[in-house]
Design goal:
The chain contains 7 helices and 15 strands. It has helices at about 15-25, 30-40, 110-120, 150-165, 235-245, 265-280, 310-320, and strands at about 1-5, 40-45, 45-50, 60-65, 80-85, 90-95, 140-150, 165-175, 180-185, 190, 200, 210-220, 220-230, 285-290, 300-305. Strands 5, 6, 7, 8, 9, 12, 13, 14 and 15 form a 9-stranded mixed sheet that branches. A 4-stranded antiparallel sheet has the order 1-4-2-3. Helix 1 crosses helix 2 (about 30-40) and helix 6 packs antiparallel against helix 7. The mean pLDDT is about 90.
Length: about 325
């Protein structure tokens, strides 16, 4: 049994316990936090409390993490593009189409299955279905991920995510052109009231989220954006860009699919259709990742080139189509 303490910050005073922990413990998913609370592993004033418990400024909350149970997952020989590896962590370049961890009935074919075959051990902080997973990428988003082999590395990486000192930079192709060359989108994200499978910008009940962007190129109907995460919410970039009217190219779940062609100038409709046919997914790639090694203290930075499908779309967009 491992445990750690969380001191309630002034801005979280009066918040529900589960929401406060979700806001400050990015290494733990919301469902994992709720499960720990329900099983009595989260204590306030030394006592078990419910998820609805209201925390106070300066209060110490103890979170206990039971030793990991066998995951019941099969190691699989899935090719991994490993950018860095030592005894404590890995950096992996995930291809589009690969799910990061098992969910529900999906117990095979994920990055975790491949990691179990590749590594002798992974951290157990995030539960039996997410060993080693410090942060995630959507299935159809490609790019760089940190993976922790031991709990000390996991806590250190998660702390950098929570303190917003880890660098995560993406390249994305988005519909239209933002009014400003660079900017910051700040809007709380929660479950969409219209479709619980999706996320949305919400007025109440959401989690603080902020994304920075810079326009690198514009071809008449689509922009190439460099995007940086201040927070790490589910579908954050996709939701934020859709919210400001510039959804990710090819992202049909958030308004970036073929229906978008109807709203652009007829001059560009044929070219936009050709680019979408090349895309076949959301055009988003986590190309740069930087952090301080939690054990050695060495600053690390990695860069992954655009995958082939995004290079083809980029070339078509830059050809003046």
């Amino acid at each position: 049994m491992r445990q750690f303490e969380v001191t309630v910050l002034p801005e979280h005073a009066g918040c529900r316990l589960d929401r406060m922990l979700a806001a400050v413990c990015e290494a733990l998913s919301r469902s994992r936090i709720q499960a720990l609370i329900a099983s009595g592993e989260v204590l306030a004033r030394g006592e078990r409390v419910r998820s609805s418990y209201r925390v106070s400024d300066g209060e110490e909350i103890v979170v206990r993490l039971p030793d990991p149970e066998p995951a019941g997952l099969d190691p699989e020989d899935i090719p991994l593009d490993v950018f860095f590896e030592d005894g404590h962590l890995l950096v992996v370049n995930k291809p589009a189409g690969l799910v990061v961890h098992p969910t529900g009935r999906m117990r095979s074919g994920t990055l975790v299955n491949g990691l179990l075959a590749h590594c002798d051990g992974l951290s157990g902080i995030n539960g039996v279905l997410r060993p080693g997973i410090v942060h995630r990428l959507d299935r159809e988003t490609s790019g760089l991920l940190m993976v922790a082999k031991d709990d000390a590395a996991h806590r250190g990486l998660a702390a950098q995510l929570e303190a917003r000192t880890a660098m995560r930079r993406y390249t994305g192709f988005a519909w239209g052109q933002p009014q400003s060359q660079r900017g910051r989108i700040e809007a709380a994200i929660g479950r969409s009231p219209a479709d619980r499978r999706r996320m949305a910008v919400v007025d109440t009940g959401g989690r603080f989220a902020a994304t920075r962007y810079e326009v690198k190129a514009f071809n008449g109907f689509a922009s190439t954006l460099e995007l940086s995460l201040e927070t790490g919410r589910t579908h954050q970039i996709r939701v934020h860009l859709a919210h400001v009217g510039h959804p990710i190219f090819g992202d049909s779940a958030y308004g970036g699919g073929a229906k978008r062609i109807r709203g652009i100038s007829p001059t560009f409709r044929i070219a936009a259709g050709a680019a979408l046919n090349l895309a076949n997914r959301q055009m988003l790639h986590a190309g740069s990742l930087g952090f301080v090694h939690p054990v050695t203290g060495k600053a690390l930075e990695f860069h992954a080139e655009l995958p082939e499908d995004m290079r083809r779309v980029r070339d078509l967009l830059s050809s003046g189509c």
